[in-house]
Amino acid sequence: MKKSAFKLTIHMVASLDGFIAKKDNSVSWFETVDYYEQGVTLTEQDMAEFLKTIDCYIMGSRTYEHALKLSKSYGWVYGDVPVIVLTHRNLPVDRPNVELYAGDLNNLVNERLKPNYNNVWMAGGATLAKDLISLKLADEIRVSIMPIILGEGKLFFDAIGQEQTLHLKGATAYKNGIVDLHYEIIK
Fold first, then answer.
1. Is residue 58 part of a domain?
2. CATH no. for residue 84?
3. Distance between CA 22 and CA 49 in Å, rounded?
């Protein structure tokens, strides 16, 4: 079987004003009761089929810690897919598919990810997103905009330090008021 082209996608859920978490790191605002009549319905089957296309996740340490905390209530959302956590700290790892990585980001992407995976998703971390863009290692950005203005918290793009041209590949509005934006990063 021929290997598909490698793609690294930055994915983030954000408020309309660009925050990815409240100051206390809570994400209870991810739940929405909004209703957009003209929106698309996303079924659990559609989501499950889509998630099967992701063959590796990378994330920052704070995102990982948050995912561990949420997994106690909602389960581990990444299933058996490999998860690489970028950290210099000694964090708990209780799943065989989770690996801690403290090395060079260029080496991780070019020597470990590209030869072994087709579709890698960065599942969180504003600092990691900034580094991937700055180093020109990311191929796409997907942002799920929640129907809320938070007013303060942790910004998705905070002082990225460079201009980056994007190409809009798609936009989808869902019945629950969430709008997904899909951009290709122009290199």
1. yes
2. 3.40.430.10
3. 30
Q: The pTM is what?
A: 0.93
Convert the pLDDT of each residue in 83-115 to its tens digit. Answer: 999 999 999 998 999 999 999 999 999 999 999
Q: Which domain holds residue 173?
A: 43-185
Amino acid at 4: S
- For residue 167, CA distances in Å to 3, 5, 49, 139, 142 come to 25, 18, 25, 11, 12
- Asked whether residue 162 is domain-assigned, the answer is yes
**Total domains, the chain:** 1
Q: E-assigned strands of 34-96?
A: 56-60, 83-86
- The secondary structure of residue 4, as a DSSP letter, is P
For residue 28, being part of any structural domain is answered with no
User: Looking at the chain, how many residues does it have?
Assistant: 187
For 33, other C-beta atoms within 10 Å of its C-beta total 7
Q: What is the dihedral of CA 38, 181, 97, 70, to 10 degrees?
A: -60
